[in-house]
Design goal:
88 residues, mainly alpha, two-stranded antiparallel ribbon, 4 helices, 42% helix, elongated
C-alpha cells in the first residue's frame, strides 16, 4: 500500500493516505472465520491456525487492497449490522 502512496503525485498523497488508512480501519483484525483461506485454516483438531507470512502474503495483500476481490469485503467490519464477522 505504501508503494501506491509513494508513486502518487506529491500533492495527492494526503488524500490518498487518508483513504488508505480509512480502508484499513474497516478491517476486522481479530482471528476468525473471516480470515479462513486468506491468512489461516483450521487444523484437524478444529483450532484456527494462522499461516506463515510467505504462505499468505499475496492473499492478505489482495484482501486488504483490492475491492474487486471477494476477500476484501469478508475481512472488513459489517457496515450493515455495525458488527464484525466473528467465529461462531
Amino acid at each position: 500500500m505504501g508503494d501506491v502512496l509513494l508513486r502518487s503525485p506529491h500533492d495527492e498523497r494526503p488524500q490518498l493516505q487518508t483513504r488508505l488508512l480509512d480502508s484499513l480501519r474497516e478491517v476486522n483484525w481479530t482471528k476468525g472465520e473471516h480470515w479462513l483461506g486468506i491468512a489461516g485454516n483450521y487444523t484437524p483438531s478444529g483450532v484456527f491456525s494462522v499461516k506463515g507470512t510467505k504462505e499468505v502474503a499475496y492473499a492478505v495483500f489482495n484482501a486488504l487492497t483490492d475491492p474487486a476481490n471477494s476477500s476484501y469485503a469478508r475481512v472488513r467490519t459489517d457496515k450493515v449490522s455495525g458488527g464484525a464477522h466473528e467465529l461462531s
